[in-house]
Amino acid sequence: MRIFLSLIALFVTMPLASAVQPTPVVVELFTSEGCSSCPPADDVLRRLAEQQPIAGAEIIAIGEHVDYWDYLGWPDRFATAGFSELQRNYARTRRDGRVHTPQVVVNGQAMAVGNRESTVKALARNAARQPIDRLPVRVVSQDSDALTIEVTVPESARGLELRALLVERGLSTAVRHGENAGKRLAHAPTARSVVSQRVGDAGVMQLTVPLPTSAPEFVADNGELVVLIQRQAGAVLAAGQVAVLAGR
């Protein structure tokens, strides 16, 4: 009888244990193909994304390429002025004025030099102890130009910014000029497209995320759709991620 009751207790608790999900931890890396210090940081972020070494955390890795090093002789094909401005806005929000590459920002707040792996891991562990909400997101449809996605947002998100990023894994570049001339750089998951929208009423929001038009051609098999809710250039309060192929 005691064994029978123990088995009942086991089966009752198993679904509860399996329902526990790791908390999202968003790690943004501001990087550039024109920066000689950046390739090791891309390696750090790529390992975090692949190995998921932080207990209780799901690392959502986003490489965001800035354009302010292009003048050194190598225009980064993944860089945008928008990511450069976002990095500056983060610095304004933190009020520390620190803008550099490689720079990691965790959950929109904590900052570190991106090639210092132990420090980046420590920030991720700390973020996992302060859980943020997981955003339900799904890809509704995909055509030749864009993805249509649906995100379920909570009442607490009203008035905040919703940012959706199309991220691609497995990218690399043979650099011919500038500080990294002669190297083939293997990138961490890289943002290829981004849209943002202010959250209105709670419920299901639908967004259209454009597919990249610049080279290299976007490979859907390697694509992830990342959605963040955050204060303007500040704390990430909720995050979700889904494979692009989920829309097929």
Structural overview:
The protein has a single domain, classed as Immunoglobulin-like, CATH 2.60.40. It contains four helices and 14 strands. 23% of the residues lie in helices and 36% in strands. It has 248 residues and is α+β, with helices and mostly antiparallel strands. The chain starts with a helix and ends in a 5-residue tail after the last strand. It has a five-stranded mixed β-sheet with strand order 5-14-13-8-11, with no helix packed on it. It has a four-stranded mixed β-sheet with strand order 2-1-3-4, sandwiched between helices. Strands 6-7-12 form a three-stranded antiparallel β-sheet, with no helix packed on it.
Sum this structure up briefly.
With 248 residues, the chain is of the alpha+beta class. It has 4 helices and 14 strands. It has one domain (12-247): Immunoglobulin-like (Sandwich).
Helix content: 10-25%
CATH fold-level name = Immunoglobulin-like
- How big is the Rg? 19 Å
CATH architecture name: Sandwich
The CATH homologous superfamily is named Immunoglobulins
| Mean of residue pLDDT values | 91
User: Any idea of the CATH class?
Assistant: Mainly Beta
- Principal-axis shape equals globular
Q: For the largest beta sheet, what order do the strands appear in spatially?
A: 5-14-13-8-11
* C-alpha end-to-end distance: 50 Å
Largest sheet: 5 strands, mixed
Please work out how many helical segments DSSP would assign: 4
Overall number of strands: 14
Low-confidence stretches: 3-18
Structural class: alpha+beta
